[in-house]
Each structure stands twice: as structure tokens, then as C-alpha cells.
Design brief:
By secondary structure, the chain is an alpha/beta fold. The chain has helices spanning 7-11, 17-34, 64-72, 76-88, 110-123, 153-171, 187-203, 221-231, 240-265, 276-281, 284-294, 345-359, 375-386, 425-432, 434-442, 454-459, 465-485, 500-509, 512-522, 526-548, 560-584, and strands at 49-50, 60-62, 93-99, 103-108, 137-141, 175-182, 272-275, 298-302, 319-323, 334-335, 362-368, 396-401, 404-408, 411-412, 450-453. It binds one RNA strand through helix 3, helix 17, helix 19 and helix 20.
RNA sequence: GACCCCGUAGCUCAGCCGGAUAGAGCACCAGAUUCCUAAUCUGGGGGCCGCGCGUUCGAAUCGCGCCGGGGUCACCA
């Protein structure tokens, strides 16, 4: 389902333009260290190489002189002189100029860009793929919605962000496990079982009213019918103890089938579903408790009264096993078991993370911001558990996805499974399509809240930026089809005929590999969406040059050689758009 | 009271590890289509980057303190 790339293949890939020039600068700086210009042990960690904002500044810019000047006891411009003297001598670098407070601006020979164009063509789908992850195993847990009903829009953002992040990390050289934690052990699944029992009675011909507190959703009707068909009226009058576990198991299985189907409409497929109930039955939670107790991280104590605005109504002190999360910046120690002896969510969750850490080099969780308050305790517990043998704690990040405020016609729309009042993910995907939903969720950084107004999204779906990007791809593909009909195919024979506008397009495409690495490092897939928008804008802009100046079109009928070279460029741009959309899980369409 | 996120153009939002004259879309104004797909493009107006102090060659970006908005503060999940 998720194609993986072997390490060998990645390592044999040629260096992309940015990577190659970054290496070049580093070697120049290393030389300066050897010559004593820079002090031994100088770190180049803050040295950047980026495209200048203003194209008149050249092709590439580095801040090396400014960053390193202080350590060298030189002023930035003097150090820049020393660096540029070496850089300017490099083949492929036309000029190295010092500007402003000490920027070094590089101008590259056209051949450098042409070479990058060839690299895009030869790497194909692998252009932008990075070895950065070094094959490390990263477990990404996302969605993990309770198995009590279909996916609704509240789940959507975390699902898309988690899925795109997984693909991004894979593309950046990590070995990703996409995991879903099934909370099939809490009170909510008993509520589910009782709700299904009502539907079971209904299927047997009884007239029912769903009591307050149960799930009234129609989606449970078929589950009740299936149970009635299989068991007849055997459990109609039986006490709850006779059927609760059976009904719960069947209901959870049915809900998970439904959730998998819903996720599939968004193109999301998890590698692994882990059951909380199975985890508890395995004794792993007990083992975790024991270990924490021997390290004095869990003790039997009295829970403090709840802080803040809510004054205690019927609150009374109880002795419970508590995790010392106050040692890690939490404002209260947290129970891992309830007074009835059952595990709290937190108690099971820390063992669950410990289990995941056994097979992964790093853990990433995607959570809704409403759980932000529990981040400190879980991170503390996992750090303690994974460093049990004296090893460094397993890297574990919780990425919080801020709430999506749901609106309908400008009015806030509250959703609740208990009231049966919610908008399903499947309905929205049905209305506007997978690509619009995914791209909408990815054109915003995850830390910012967002509004999702159904009416507006449906009405404006035609204006969604996803179509802007897809249109750029479709234009390229249609051009290639048309040229093929004319008997012209892409060729790299005359790439030297490409001019400044075409090289600028390559320059944008050449940023793809560094955008991938930066986005993967920051765990921010939305950056790829914005990059693709910029790339598409450049393509559309170039395309429209041909309106006034037919000689700038991709297809120049009188000049087959030039056309073949431009088609080679067009193919490469399309390739990068396709690659980026692939990471985001969005379709690259052939026509619109 | 504590913790987390946000505050950038009229609106919705980008802005990477601090970098050069702070960007895009929408909306508004003026233009471009006998031509490879106009779902596109070109130009224009519009900014105390919430406020203050600090760090330094340099702050929208980092730190501290305020102000404003949202979220959370269960033996829930």
C-alpha cells in the first residue's frame, strides 16, 4: 500500500543541486578552518543556503560569513571575502558577490540548472526523495477515534495531517508505521453495546425509544439486525451480563469496519490497529505499573481536589495509584487506575506507548488540541519507561492539531455522538471530493484553529487551491499529448536553448528536495502544499507568456528542437507536481 | 489560578534554523483569450507584523512581561 524505497537506492542517487552546493560551501569552510582563518571546531550548523527572495540577488545565497564572523573574530564582510575568493573559483559558479551585511550571493552557470533538470528526469518519481531519515523506524499514531460510530468532521484534520506526515516522513527516508489505537476498553464501548442491544430488540419487532445517554445513531441499526438474524431472540430478555461482552465485541468490530471504510474514502490506510482491551489482557499494563512503582514514579496517594473553576460537588478524597507527573511540570499527580480497579485511559496509554517504543526508533502522536493537557504526563511516563535500562529515552513527539470549528451558514454547529447530531466525513467527501478535503486541511499550519463552513466549502469548492495545482499538472499533460499527436516528444538534446524564464522554472522545481527535508524535519506537511501552490503559480505565469509571445509557448510549431527541449522541461515540472501531490495524497489529474 | 495554541493587508492565511525592500488568495480597481485548457495571467491601491522591554551586526521570527481570542484543567476518553 505504501511503497517503500530501499536504502541502497537512495544512497546511489545523485546529489540534487541544493545538496551539492551546500556540500561545496561546507568544504570551502572546512578549508578555511584548516588554514586557520576559522577557529578549529567551528560548527556550521547555522549556515544556510537558500534561494534569495529577490531574484536579482542571484541564484543561491548563504549567510555563512555573518553567522561565523563572530567566532572568527572578523567582521562579516572580511570573512565573506575569504569565502567568495574560494567559491568563485569553483566550476559552475559564475560569480560570488558580497551584499548587504555580508550575504554571499552566487550565480550559477546555466548548465547547473540544466543538470538539475536532467536529474529530475532521470530520478522520476524519486526526485525529492531523501535519505535524511536513514531508514529509522517511526511510528505515527493518528486518528484513533473511539469505535463508537462513523468518522465525523471533527476527526478529519488529524487524520489528513497524520496521513500526509506519514507519507512525508517516508519520502524523507524513514520507515513509517501508521498506527491506529482502538479504545475498545472503556465505558464508552459498554454504552455502545447497550445501544446496539436496543437496535437488536428493534430488529426483533419491538418498538423502542433510545434512552438518554445511549447512542441514538441510525448507523447501529444494521448491527442490531445482524445480531437478531444470528441469535434470534436469545438475548431479548436475558440479563445484561449474558450479552454485554458479545454485543460489545460485535459492535466494535462493526464500527471499526465502518471507520476503515470512511478513512478509505480519504485514501487513508493504517498499517496497524492496536486494541486497548488486548493490551490490558496481555498484562503489559500491570508490568508497566510495577516498573514505575519500583522507581517511585507510581505511589498510592490521595487525589487532590480538582483545581480551577469547577468547585467540587460530590468530590471526596480517594486513595489511588498515582503517577508522579508533578515531577515533570504537571500541576497534579495523575491516577493510573480508577477506584473500581479498572485502568484509567492514561494508565493503559503509557503501557501502550511503551509497547510501541519496542519496535520503533521514534514515536509521533497526532492529537486533537482538546487533549493538550495530558501531553506532559504521557511524555514523562514514556520517557521514564523507555529509559528503564539506562538508555536514552525514546524520541516521542506529540503533535497537536488545533480544533476545527464547524459552521453551517456561518453558525457554529456542535456535534455529538450521543445526540446523534454530527456531519460525517463520508458525507463531506461525497460532496466536495477527497482532494478538496485533504488540501483544505493541509493549507494551514496545524497549530492554528480553523473554521470549516460546509456551505462555504461546498459553494467555493471550485475555487479551492487544489484545483490551481491540479490544473497546472493537467495543462502540462495536455500539452504533452498534443505535441505527441504532432509527432514531437520531449528530448534533452537541445536543452541549451532554454532561456532565463525556463531556468527560473527549473530553479523553483529544484527547491523541492529541500522543502521535503525541511517539512519532514519540522513535521509540517502543510509546507509542501504551499510549495506546490508556488510552483503551480510559476507554471501558470510562464504559460501565459505565450499569450502575447507565441515564441515562448511550450509548443513552437516551426521549431521542433526547441519544442522538444521545452517539453522536456514541462515533463519535469509535471513530475515534481506529481511527486508533491503524491506526498499529500492528492490526485495529479490528466485533464480538467 | 495554571498549562497549551493563536494574534501579520478589509477578510482567510503563508513566512523555514533570526537575514536583504514582510508575501499569497479572496474582495476592490484597470487590463489580457481569432493563441499549447482563461479553473489562467499582468498591473494597481491596501501593513504600529496585538503592545512594551530585552538579546545582537540584524527580530514578524528568539526570551520575559502585559493585552485580546480559543482550548484544557475527571477516577471521562
Amino acid at each position: 500500500m505504501h511503497p517503500r524505497k530501499t536504502q541502497e537506492n537512495i544512497m546511489t542517487q545523485p546529489k540534487t543541486l541544493y545538496a551539492a552546493h551546500a556540500a561545496l560551501i561546507e568544504s570551502v569552510l572546512t578549508e578555511l578552518v584548516a588554514e586557520g582563518v576559522l577557529p578549529a571546531g567551528t560548527s556550521f550548523a547555522n549556515v544556510t543556503l537558500e534561494p534569495p527572495r529577490d531574484a536579482s540577488h542571484g541564484d543561491l545565497a548563504t549567510n555563512a560569513a555573518m553567522v561565523l564572523a563572530k567566532g572568527a573574530g572578523m567582521n562579516p564582510r572580511a570573512l565573506a571575502e575569504a569565502i567568495t575568493a574560494k567559491l568563485a573559483a569553483q566550476p559552475g559558479i559564475v560569480s560570488a558577490d558580497i551584499a548587504g551585511p555580508g550575504f554571499i550571493n552566487l550565480r550559477l552557470a546555466p548548465e547547473a540548472w540544466i543538470d538539475e533538470l536532467r536529474a529530475i528526469a532521470s530520478l522520476g518519481d524519486d526526485y525529492g526523495r531523501s535519505a535524511m531519515g536513514g531508514g529509522r523506524v517511526v511510528n505515527v499514531e493518528y486518528v484513533s477515534a473511539n469505535p463508537t460510530g462513523p468518522m465525523h468532521m471533527g476527526h478529519c484534520r488529524g487524520a489528513v495531517v497524520g496521513d500526509a506526515l506519514s507519507s512525508l516522513l517516508e519520502f524523507a527516508g524513514h520507515n513509517v508505521t501508521r498506527e491506529y489505537y482502538v479504545n475498545d476498553a472503556g465505558a464508552q464501548v459498554d454504552v455502545l453495546a447497550r445501544s446496539v442491544h436496543m437496535r437488536y430488540l428493534e430488529a426483533l419487532g419491538q418498538s423502542i425509544t433510545i434512552p438518554e445517554g445511549l447512542y441514538p445513531g441510525e448507523y447501529l441499526v444494521p448491527v442490531g439486525e445482524a445480531l437478531a438474524a444470528e441469535f434470534g431472540d436469545r438475548y431479548a430478555a436475558a440479563p445484561e451480563g449474558d450479552w454485554l461482552i458479545l454485543f460489545r465485541t460485535r459492535a466494535v468490530a462493526a464500527m471499526m469496519d465502518m471507520i476503515r471504510e470512511d478513512l478509505a474514502t480519504l485514501g487513508i490506510v493504517h498499517d496497524l490497529f492496536s486494541s486497548e482491551a488486548e493490551l490490558q489482557a496481555s498484562g503489559k499494563v500491570d508490568a508497566a505499573e510495577q516498573w514505575l512503582r519500583t522507581h517511585d514514579l507510581v505511589y498510592d496517594g490521595v487525589l487532590e481536589a480538582p483545581k480551577g473553576k469547577a468547585p467540587s460537588e460530590d468530590w471526596e478524597p480517594v486513595q489511588l495509584p498515582l503517577f508522579r507527573s508533578t515531577k515533570f511540570g504537571d500541576d497534579q499527580d495523575r491516577p493510573i487506575k480508577k477506584s473500581n480497579g479498572a485502568w484509567t485511559y492514561f494508565g493503559a496509554d503509557l503501557a501502550y506507548h511503551f509497547q510501541k517504543a519496542q519496535t520503533a526508533d521514534a514515536l509521533v502522536d497526532i492529537w486533537g488540541a482538546d487533549h493538550a493537557g495530558t501531553v506532559k504526563r504521557i511524555k514523562a511516563a514514556v520517557a521514564a519507561l523507555t529509559s528503564a535500562d539506562g538508555a536514552a529515552p525514546k524520541p516521542f513527539e506529540v503533535k497537536l492539531v488545533q480544533m476545527v470549528q464547524l459552521l453551517k451558514g456561518g453558525q457554529p454547529f456542535k456535534m455529538s455522538k450521543r445526540s446523534g447530531n454530527f456531519v460525517t466525513l463520508a458525507d463531506v467527501v461525497d460532496m466536495v471530493g477527497k482532494d478538496v478535503v485533504r488540501f483544505t486541511m493541509l493549507t494551514r499550519k496545524p497549530d492554528a484553529q480553523m473554521d470549516f463552513d460546509f456551505d462555504k466549502v461546498v459553494e467555493a469548492s471550485k475555487d479551492n487551491p487544489v484545483f490551481y495545482v491540479q490544473y497546472a499538472h493537467a495543462r502540462i499533460r495536455s500539452t504533452l499529448r498534443k505535441a505527441a499527436d504532432m509527432g514531437i516528444t520531449p528530448s534533452d538534446a537541445d536543452l541549451d536553448r532554454l532561456g532565463a524564464e525556463e531556468l527560473a522554472l527549473i530553479a523553483r522545481a529544484a527547491q523541492f528536495p529541500r522543502e521535503i527535508e525541511a517539512a519532514a524535519r519540522a513535521r509540517e506537511p502543510h509546507r509542501i502544499a504551499f510549495y506546490l501552490y508556488d510552483l503551480a503559480a510559476d507554471l501558470h505565469s510562464y504559460w501565459n507568456l505565450g499569450n502575447d509571445r507565441p515564441e515562448k509557448r511550450f509548443i513552437v510549431e516551426q521549431d521542433a528542437q526547441l519544442t522538444a527541449a521545452r517539453l522536456f522541461l514541462a515533463t519535469a515540472i509535471g513530475q515534481v507536481i506529481r511527486g508533491g501531490l503524491g506526498v499529500l495524497g492528492v490526485e495529479a489529474v490528466e485533464s480538467m
